Amino acid sequence: MTACGFTPAEIDEMTLADVVALFDYWRDFPPAHEVLKIAFRLERKPETPKSVSANDPSGIGALIARFPDGKVKLA
Predict the structure, then answer these.
(1) Calpha distance 51→72 (Å, rounded)
(2) With left for phi above 0 and alpha for psi between -120 and 50, is residue 7 left, alpha or beta?
(3) Which residue stretches of the chain are H helix?
(4) pTM above 0.70, yes or no
(5) How many domains does the chain have?
């Protein structure tokens, strides 16, 4: 589910006319989370990039460190 309430499959099925209509709607009624983000100057801090060592050029070590139990949890 995206922040706009559509699933990725629904977004893939949208026509250009659907997208234009959605943007027209958002011009008059913008998503509340975007308005609040601007009003309160909220920004998500970007994650610090994991350093890649010469011994681990693929970065798999950083991935393992991020998910030590091997499970990716949905937010």
Answers:
(1) 20
(2) beta
(3) 8-13, 16-28, 32-39, 60-66
(4) no
(5) 1
Exposure of 28 in the CB half-sphere (CA atoms within 13 A):
5
Q: Classify residue 20: in a domain, yes or no.
A: yes
Whether residue 71 lies inside any domain: the answer is no
- Separation CA 18–CA 54 (nearest Å): 48
Q: Is residue 58 part of a domain?
A: yes
29 within some domain: yes
Sign of the dihedral through C-alpha 20, 21, 26, 32: negative
pLDDT digits (tens, 9 = 90+) for 11-60: 899 999 999 999 999 899 888 888 888 888 887 777 766 565 667 767 77
Quick check: 36 and 27 in contact, CB under 8 A?
Answer: no
DSSP 47: P
